[in-house]
Automatic annotation (TrEMBL):
SUPFAM superfamilies: Homeodomain-like (SSF46689). Residues 39-58 bind DNA. Gene3D superfamilies: Tetracycline Repressor, domain 2. This is TetR/AcrR family transcriptional regulator. The keyword Transcription regulation applies. Keywords: DNA-binding, Transcription, Transcription regulation. The keyword Transcription regulation applies. It comes from the Bacteria. It comes from Dactylosporangium aurantiacum. Residues 16-76 form the HTH tetR-type domain. InterPro entries: Homeodomain-like_sf (IPR009057), HTH-type_TetR-like_transc_reg (IPR050109), HTH_TetR (IPR001647). GO terms for molecular function: DNA-binding transcription factor activity; transcription cis-regulatory region binding. Pfam families: TetR_N.
């Protein structure tokens, strides 16, 4: 006879799988039709669940938007990006340019999910739902300052580059707006974007002519 603990574990796994399925289908529908034009009933139909299940998990469409945004940032790994393996591996590099190039490559996978949602966030920017993206970008801006400081421990910034200017460049060039403009709208291949952003940041932030520069 299965243990109660085993039954609870299976039930929890099914619940998590259902929640993840709802989020994935909501993401696809939001990208295709926008937030307001997508109904909870349509999301339920696409996900193969009762509409009551969608409401049970997320209560409102704005709560579902928050869950969708979190998925675009984290993917299937609930660990915050700075603690995910790709970021850890990048920060193990001995110098800042090498670490930065790996960070850009890792960020690209995240931006491929976030960038298609940009029109959705713009459309609701004046609504309470718009705070989901705005708050996320505020946190990301602070993260860029912390990243500049961490990278500076490996390689100093070029003499004419201020800390805040370095954070500004990191914030914009590794952000979803830049990715969307060049990869989605202009048709750049993702590896081309990764190479250009990495080259641009390394050139503008660090003294590439210094002895020993890699």
């Amino acid at each position: 006879m299965p243990s109660v603990k085993g039954q609870v574990s299976k039930s929890s796994a099914r619940g998590q799988a259902t929640r993840a399925r709802i989020v994935r289908h909501a993401y696809a529908l939001f990208c295709e039709f926008g937030l307001r034009a997508t109904t909870m009933e349509t999301i339920a139909e696409r996900a193969g669940v009762a509409v009551q299940t969608v409401y049970f998990n997320f209560r409102t469409k704005d709560h579902l938007l928050q869950a969708v945004h979190e998925w675009t940032i984290l993917g299937d790994d609930p660990t915050p990006p700075p603690l995910q393996q790709w970021h850890i591996d990048a920060m193990r590099e001995p110098d800042a340019p090498s670490a930065l190039r790996k960070i850009v490559a890792g960020v690209a996978a995240m931006l491929a999910r976030v960038a298609p949602m940009i029109p959705v966030y713009h459309a609701v920017s004046q609504d309470p739902a718009g705070a989901v993206y705005q708050n996320s970008e505020t946190r990301r801006r602070a993260d860029m300052t912390a990243l500049v400081d961490a990278l500076s421990q490996k390689t100093p910034l070029a003499p004419d580059v201020r800390r805040d200017r370095a954070a500004d460049l990191l914030f914009f060039l590794t952000g979803p707006e830049c990715y969307r403009s060049l990869v989605i709208s202009a048709g750049w291949a993702e590896p081309e974007w990764v190479r250009w952003v990495g080259d641009t940041l390394c050139r503008d932030l660090y003294d590439t002519t210094a002895p020993g520069h890699r």
